[in-house]
Amino acid sequence: MKALNPTTIRPPFAAYAHGTEIPAGKRVIVTSGQLGIRADDSIPESSYDQARVCFENITEILREGDMRPGDTAHISAYVTSREHMAGYMRARDEFLAGTGRVPSSTLLIVSGFTREEFKVEVEVIAAK
């Protein structure tokens, strides 16, 4: 995959690319949005810990499809407040650490999720 960052537009604000080219012939996985809830139904309090759970779940989904975090082409994330952005971004950076990938990314602030305790939701598109 190729990161697309035209020099004619402002560089990205953080560790992401403005676009990602997925070459022909690649298999693609699209995950559903993952919330910060563990298999035992526990939900961490902090946005960082919720985001870590989201990325742990995504890693398992990718593994099921014979892919890894380094195969991520795009990340879409949703947080319920600006105060949760730093925790999410820290977990995202840990998810991508060592992969050599800087995928395209979208981060939105939303009014809420299905349960009040959720602060973060993340979905990815991956290709291999």
Automatic annotation (TrEMBL):
<dbReference type="Pfam" id="PF01042">
    <property type="entry name" value="Ribonuc_L-PSP"/>
</dbReference>
<dbReference type="InterPro" id="IPR035959">
    <property type="entry name" value="RutC-like_sf"/>
</dbReference>
<protein>
    <submittedName>
        <fullName>RidA family protein</fullName>
    </submittedName>
</protein>
<dbReference type="InterPro" id="IPR006175">
    <property type="entry name" value="YjgF/YER057c/UK114"/>
</dbReference>
